[in-house]
Amino acid sequence: MWILKDYKILFIIAGLIGTLSFASPSLEFVAHLQGEAFSELWILGPNHITDDYPFNVTAGETYTIFIGVANHMTFSSYYIVKAKFRNQTDPLPNSIIGTSSSLPELYKYYVILQNGEKWETQLTFSFSNISKIENQCIVGTLKINNVAFIVNKPTTWNTNYTGYYYQLFFELWIFNVEIEDFQFHNRFVGIWLNMTF
Amino acid sequence: MKNCLVLVLLCLFLLMALLTPCLAIDETEASLKISEANSALKSAFKSVWEAERVGANVSDLVFDLKIAENFLAEAEIAYANGDLNGTISKADQCIAIADIVQNDATTLNNLASANLWGMFWLTLTFSSVGIMAFIIFLILIWSRFKRLYLKKMMKMKPEAT
Questions:
Q1: By three-state DSSP, how is residue A33 classified?
Q2: Full-prediction pTM beyond 0.90?
Q3: Calpha distance B17→A174 (Å, rounded)
Q4: Distance between B116 CA and the closest CA of chain A, angstroms
Q5: What pLDDT band is residue A65 in, cutting at 50, 70 and 90?
Q6: Residue B141 neighbours by CB under 8 Å, 6+ apart
Q7: pLDDT tens for residues B124-133?
Q8: Which of A25, A78, A145 sits opposite B123 (nearest CB)?
Q9: Which residue out of A21, A78, A80 would a mutagenesis test of the B interface target, given it has the greatest number of B Cβ atoms within 10 Å?
């Protein structure tokens, strides 16, 4: 059997819950309560699925992939997707300390998205001026969406995986309104490519 | 007569030679134009973002920003392909749209800020009145309940176990 003190506690709890319920719309203004904020970055193969990515590549052929970004930052965001090309020893972005790769960007996309929106585009690439000297392969020109970039990127024969490996990767940068500049958003995706002759 | 014609032609040639460097677009100018377009787009986006933060509907402005952003991308591609005239033209289009968006965003921001303050005070009033009414209601219920409870207790007879 409950005594008067128990009922008192029950009334106090009900009072607190009711007060918080009535105060919550005002708290929303002050605290800007919002869900988890994040962005997505992806690459899809030529068939628009996460399969059949170009792997064995050769000079003169054109390859297709799809690249996409989705905004879940709870507000509009301004992104840059930077395409970079590396060999097996060039630096990748560092996810732990959140720094981008020091390699120069070759091609970039400007993307402005409202919260919940996504963007996707087709990207084509091809190689030319490929040379092979002993156990080294040099890619002279990389063409992305019909824009040619002279890369002159060498790579050595990988004995473990038997191939001349390169990586085409994409970094996601986001515009920070506080510093009024773009900063690496700590997201990147890439595909490995084996240069064949 | 022949000498006069030669002199006129020579003057025209000289004039063209002098004007050419003024009219030609060099790579630095094109590069600067891209930077200018980039800055204009950043400022426009910042204004839109600020308007959105105070609750404005920025869908139309974001749509226009996307058009400006496309012009900037086209300007960069034109620059990479060595089309300097195309670069300037596309960058100018980007700047023009970005400037319009920035102005519209600033106006929208001012309107939305005023609305936001109005909404804030309305919500605060609703919350305060609601809390007070609820507490008064709860106190009334509690005192009535307490009275009934005590009355019930008084009527109870002690039971020997």
A1: coil
A2: no
A3: 46
A4: 9
A5: very high
A6: A11
A7: 898 899 999 9
A8: A25
A9: A78
